[in-house]
Write a structure and sequence with these properties.
single chain; five-stranded mixed sheet; two-stranded antiparallel sheet; 9 helices; 7 strands; about 30% helix; about 15% strand; globular; Peptidase_M6-like_domain; peptidase activity
């Protein structure tokens, strides 16, 4: 019986202690949330990347993923970049400042010699420097894979394509982005991969070409992905307001606008540029595509997305 009395006293003391503790700690989180049923369970603080500055980039602690001497733990992707231009379209960075209809090139990169273009883009994309603020494709993939994979980039060219630029850019096949937009004369929907990779293989030989697992094709000029909106509905009130300078060749009977991918129209000049894409071990990009596009297309080539 004495044992039972001690147990009862212990229970009273325990209950009293728990009551005192309850008065000393805050209410459970679930009870707090009930005070404001609209309070987010997981509040988010974010900034639109368009509004961010270089200074807002924060690298993971104790890392320097952009260091080209630091290889991926598993390996680096071995990629060839094949640079091409056209009889009617030089590389934008070889032109005088803001001399084309898109307002390019920019003052930081203009007036280059044609033979210097391949190395310029290699450095822009994959060598830490002042122009890219120290950010590279290698850094992106090292960061995304926690140091597992990096990027090695070797440049080739420049190669002059046999057809006009718009012949590769206008996708006028049935169901294509730019149906009925090909001017009278030579055909459009010409395959850029066939001509670009063919020129590269003839130059370096199949053995060298086959030593690369993937290829980026860098095409002179803009790309449609970065121009359809800015030089379409954002610049012109309607398709009928597109002026002749943004239209097809002067001897064409086509209108100055053309079909495009996401909306009903854009300027013909924008539609006549290539649309970046990836498949079959290679991807196509324009000079305006930017590092993010190369990184994005590489994910397609690797089957990540």
């Amino acid at each position: 019986m004495a044992e039972r009395k001690r147990s009862g006293v212990s229970m009273v003391i325990l209950a009293s202690t728990m009551l005192d503790m309850g008065l000393a700690v805050p209410a459970p989180v679930s009870r707090q949330i009930l005070l404001d049923p609209f309070a987010p369970i997981d509040p988010q603080v974010w900034v639109n990347p368009d509004n961010m500055t270089w200074e807002q980039f924060v690298a993971p602690p104790s890392t320097d993923w952009s260091d080209p001497s630091r290889k991926g733990r598993d390996r680096n992707f071995n990629i060839a970049m094949v640079t091409v231009d056209y009889p009617d379209s030089a590389f934008v960075v070889t032109l005088p400042v803001q001399s084309d209809i898109f307002g390019n090139p920019q003052p930081l990169a203009s007036g280059l010699e044609r033979e210097d273009v391949p190395n310029f883009y290699k450095d822009l994309l994959n060598t830490p420097n002042e122009l890219n603020q120290g950010h590279t494709l290698h850094e992106y993939w090292m960061g995304d894979s926690f140091g597992k994979y990096g990027v090695d980039l070797t440049v080739f060219g420049p190669y002059r394509m046999p057809s006009l630029r718009y012949q590769y850019g206008i996708d006028d096949e049935q169901g294509g982005f730019n149906e009925n937009a090909c001017p009278e004369g030579p055909p459009c929907s010409v395959d850029l991969r066939t001509d670009a990779l063919g020129a590269w293989r003839r130059d370096v030989g199949n053995e060298t070409a086959n030593s690369y697992e993937l290829a980026f094709i860098l095409s002179a000029g803009q790309d449609e992905s970065s121009t359809w909106q800015e030089f379409g509905e954002m610049k012109f009130a309607s398709r009928d307001d597109v002026p002749e300078e943004f239209g097809p060749p002067i001897n064409s009977t086509l209108p100055n606008w053309a079909d495009t991918r996401y909306v009903e129209w854009t300027s013909w000049a924008a539609a006549s540029t290539i649309w970046p894409n990836a498949g079959g071990g290679s991807s196509t990009q324009g000079e305006s595509s930017g590092m993010a596009t190369f990184a994005h297309e590489l994910t397609h080539l690797l089957g990540v997305c």
